[in-house]
Amino acid sequence: NSSESPNCAKSILTSDRLQVVVMLSEFFNETWEAANCANCLKNNSEGLSNSTEEFLDLFNKSLTCFEQNLQGEALDLSSNNYTEVCKNCNATYRMLNDRYNYLQRLNRRGGEAGHSAHLCIDVEDAMNITRKLWSRTFNCSVPCSDTVPVIAVSSFILFLPVVFYLSSFLHSKQKKRILILPKRIQSNASLVNIQEKYS
Question: What residue intervals traverse the membrane (predicted)?
Answer without folding.
Answer: 148-170
